[in-house]
């Protein structure tokens, strides 16, 4: 792919507007095999204290794992010595013989058992399980709780971040629309948004979908681009947010692209899948399952690409920070801090690049589904206009 001068200019404009921040996560404890939620958390604390010098690498791994996971608490920072967490709890919404809504603070970060309408619930590693009054949890051989779960529609940290992103996008685009009423040149944040919107139109939608049909899909392409971009940038802040590094989120985004592609496809698209033209009959039959599988591999590639790249970036940054505490010397500290800062700057480019790649591939898949094919007509026209002269 050749990047035009307009692409480079728009990318530099966006990069200048954002300053990198290092990712910081909340501390996490190691899982211990106990029979009650409160005993499990108490055992985790005792185990961490007893093995802190020898098990530092394990603690760092648990720290990174916690950063990558979702949570019912929005914790800004924690005091590991006192066990205090500074932040706020999020709403818990359960459907279990009725609707149950309460604050996650009632769990006391997993230390307390919550009773609602005669049902008892325990939180273990940010998952809510049904239990008894004593908080009994049953574990399998891999130390995974086997207790039944209620249907959980809680407002977790990832959900809250997506809602906040939606509000930010709404305010930005409404402000941009209002600025055009005052004149042809946008003002405020509109000056940053306009180059990005023009870039998506001219470099993504038009080349891949075509001039006749691109406007129909511009709304989705702009939405998915800015949605992923803002979430990626949130992931670079010290708030410990990892939304686009959650495979459930990337799977939903990929499925939306898949459904838009399939429901917008024309008859030529389906003809090339189920009865490919200009191919022998036996080959057509053999190609049908391959073509059907190809329609499924495209959203799978979208899902894995975004999830893997964002998660890998977070793991690398957190690992470099962890190495400072592993080596604990005057050489490792400045060295790994400088490398972490450098990787964080690279992560800004990755945040823009992954939003662009997801949007570009979505436009490409949609364009493949809506483009018109004129094999026979083109062949006949070519034969009539340019006769073969012997």
Explain the layout of strands and helices:
Elements: H1 5-16, H2 37-50, H3 56-68, E1 73-79, E2 84-89, E3 91-95, E4 99-103, E5 114-116, E6 119-124, E7 127-131, E8 151-152, H4 157-182, H5 190-209, H6 214-234, H7 247-264, H8 267-274, H9 281-327, H10 332-370, H11 375-385
Antiparallel strand pairs: 1-2, 3-4, 3-8, 5-6, 6-7
How would you explain this protein's 3D organization?
The chain has eleven helices and eight strands. It has 390 residues and is mostly helical. It has two domains: 5-16 and 159-373, no CATH class; 37-156, no CATH class. A three-stranded antiparallel beta sheet has the order 4-3-8, with no helix packed on it. The chain has a three-stranded antiparallel beta sheet with strand order 5-6-7, with no helix packed on it. It has a two-stranded antiparallel sheet with strand order 1-2. Helix 7 runs parallel beside helix 10 (332-370). It is globular and about 70 Å long. Residues 7-33, 46-54 and 376-390 have low confidence and may be disordered.
List keywords for this structure.
single chain; 390 residues; mainly alpha; 3-stranded antiparallel β-sheet; 59% helix
Summarize the structure.
With 390 residues, this protein is mainly α. Helix content is 59%, strand content 10%. The protein folds into two domains: 5-16 and 159-373, no CATH class; 37-156, no CATH class.
Approximate helicity band: 55-70%
Strand adjacency order, main sheet: 4-3-8
Number of separate structural domains? 2
Q: Distance between termini?
A: 42 Å
List the secondary-structure elements in sequence, H or E.
HHHEEEEEEEEHHHHHHHH
Q: Kindly name the structural category.
A: mainly alpha
The proportion of residues in beta strands is 5-15%
Average pLDDT taken over every residue: 79
Report the major sheet: 3 strands, antiparallel
